Amino acid sequence: MSLAPRSPGLIQRYRELLQTRHYARRTVKTYEQWLRRFLRFHRMRHPREMGSAEVNAFLSHLAVSEQVSASTQNQALAALLFLYRDLLERDLEIDGVVRARTRQRLPVVLSEAEVRAVRDRLEGEAALVVGLLYGSGLRLMETLRLRVKDLDVQRRELTVRDGKGGKDRLTLLPQSLVPALQEHLLRVRSLHHGDLAAGWGSVVMPYALARKYPNASREWGWQWVFPQQHRWHDRESSAQGRHHLDPSVVQKAVKRAVMEAGVNKAASCHTFRHSFATHLLERGQDIRTIQELLGHKDVSTTMIYTHVLNRGPLGVRSPADLV
Asked: Pick the catalytic residue: 37, 139, 161, 256?
């Protein structure tokens, strides 16, 4: 007698529903971690046995005992709302939650001299990636997920595919980076041809495009601009391929360069995106254009950069400079 297949568990169904709704991979992973923490907090009780009271208790615990930020608490809430409203199809009443304190933090911004000092201490792929973070206003993962076809050297622009919020956008491709990028792409193309000759050369395709265009994963245009040095290898299927550069490679290089440059700020990869926006504002670029380049949904998000301008948001000069 054959046994009936086991139905998928709660976490698997939760993950699959997130993927079906086209949530980003990182969001799926983060939401799954919050679900696991929620279950462990309530001693692995099934969510159907719990409700608003247990969710409120968990969120209050995060704020009081773990002292998480407001954004972290809201992220946990979003993960649990998806669990109950979308997977279990139950409404939650979020009342009596102790809210984490919201802090208004200004972004860390480097001066143009500091940007030059840090970039001068970077080399290879890390230097190119940081050049795009600062010259195009990209996020780190947006840069690492660029494919060859996303670069338009003739028009001096690049396309960000499936950025934050699942949006595409166009932004600048700095002229100063073009020679180094073209030289880099020649090396990447040679690497790709070597992979093809060895019987590999495929990359992961977004969504169902691998089924719709079976040969596209081996085409040059779909290759990563910044591929990893070594191919991944699946022991079960024996398949091989290349993923994009790991973000930690660039993060470590930037941290080292900031220290060597003697920059006394908590600068990270994202600081170059902040500096991109601030320096454009300082040069008189209108804020709506900067909003589009950054991919912000609301201009109020972009307005925070007016608070870190050297001259102040209205170009006000200190009275101490007038005497």
From this structure: 139
All CATH 1.10.443.10 domain ranges of the chain, comma separated, are 112-308
> Which residues are CB-neighbours of 203 under 8 A, at least 6 positions away?
147, 217, 222, 223, 224, 227, 241, 242, 243
User: In this predicted model, what pLDDT tens digit does every residue of 44-83 receive, in sequence order?
Assistant: 999 999 988 899 999 999 988 898 888 899 999 999 999 9
Beta pairing class for 157-160 and 151-152: antiparallel
Burial of 75 by CB count in 10 Å (0-12 exposed, 13-18 middle, 19+ buried)?
middle
Collect all residues with Cβ–Cβ distance below 8 Å to 309 and sequence separation of at least 6: 278, 281, 282
Is residue 149 flagged as an active site residue? Answer: no
Selecting from 1.10.443.10, 1.10.3720.10, 2.30.29.150, 1.25.40.10, what CATH number does the domain 112-308 have?
1.10.443.10
pLDDT exceeds 50 at position 5: no
Residues pairing with 159 in the sheet: 170
In 3D space, the residue among 151, 246, 161, 149 whose CA is nearest the CA of residue 206 turns out to be 161
Query: Start-end ranges of CATH 1.10.150.130 in the chain?
Result: 10-87
* Residues 14, 20: Cα–Cα separation, whole Å: 10
Query: Check: CATH 1.10.150.130 for 10-87?
Result: yes
Q: Buried b / exposed e across 79-107, counting CB within 10 Å, b at 16+?
A: bbebbbeebbeeebeeeebeebeeeeeee
Which residue is catalytic, options 121, 149, 164, 231?
Answer: 164
Is 164 among the residues known to form the active site? yes
**Overall residue count recorded for the chain in this entry:** 323
Q: Name the active-site residue from 15, 147, 279, 296.
A: 296
pTM for the full model? 0.78
* 273 is an active site residue: yes
